[in-house]
Sequence to fold (360 residues):
Amino acid sequence: MLIYWDANALASRHATGIVIYGAYLLRALQQYKDLQFVGLLKLSRLKRRKFLPRHADIRTQLYIPPFSDWFLKKTAVYHGIDFKIPATHRLPRIVTIHDLGVFEKDLSDPRFQQEGIRYNTYLINKLKPDRIIVPTEFGRDHLLHYFPHTKNIIRLVPHGSEQAFASDEHEESAPLNFTTFSPFILCPGSVEKRKNGMRLIEAFENSRAAKAARMHLVFAGGMGFDAETIRRRAAASSDAARIHFFSGMSSAALHELYRRALFTVYPSVFEGFGLPIVEAFALGSPLITGNIGAMAEVAGEAALTFDPYSSDALTAAIDTMAGSELVRKEFRAKGLKRAHHFSWGEAAKLTRDVYLELAS
Fold:
């Protein structure tokens, strides 16, 4: 079976969440001998084509819509891994919708939020994909809240965790001097409003256990919406000397942070899945995360959870985790066990089932 694969997101210098999804899912799918993949690249991505081999081994061809649509084989299936599908109905089309966070008030840059709402509405109501893949039950329910007519075309395919054990040989980042910020609490992921950095800083300031042990707080990720506000808040903190921001890191450096951290905090208020959750589990880092939405679903009983809208609740969670090696040992063991529930091999099997469903 021929699968047209949206390769545009994979023509990227950095391993973003969508790049990790596309790269690891594709590798697992390529183990099936009955599937052949052709990556489609738009003209606008040709200059970045050189980055594609970092993430995927796939034959590519130029895709110029709507002209190229006439040459797509009707017997094939198209899979858009990054919210995009062609306008043609010549062949079955699948789209992966990682989340619809853009529909949530105040979590996205208002300059782009309305455009995001407009595009996703156009994607679902006008382009009408034949199947929609989502990574969590929460993501499915959230999609149905806004688009209830999609109920029969949604398929659930959770992400994997194996990326926690790989590093990109092409990535470079400055070595970290751990002696300057140890012991430390790790907060992975982009620094942006929905990741809840403001409450985390406040909770860190108020944690007696963190203060007593002279712990540091490390944010590790790129700068997103409202990042400057979060960084200004950190700079104004009485504990500013113990709050650090690292970005542009290699996957190897990030994984080393997980391993060396006393524990990880992922305080986001909204996620479609939350890859850092399974990465922390896989690398043996005890985890604190929210008790709502996809965070609670993915974490299960393997993390210490809290109300992400309460700074006091987060402070209490930090005190609990920071104050007891026994608690950290318990959640480290639970996390390692939970990580085995998430594999790209299983994601590939479920995705292939969707391909076969449409081909039949």
Q: What stands out?
A: The two ends are 11 Å apart (CA to CA).
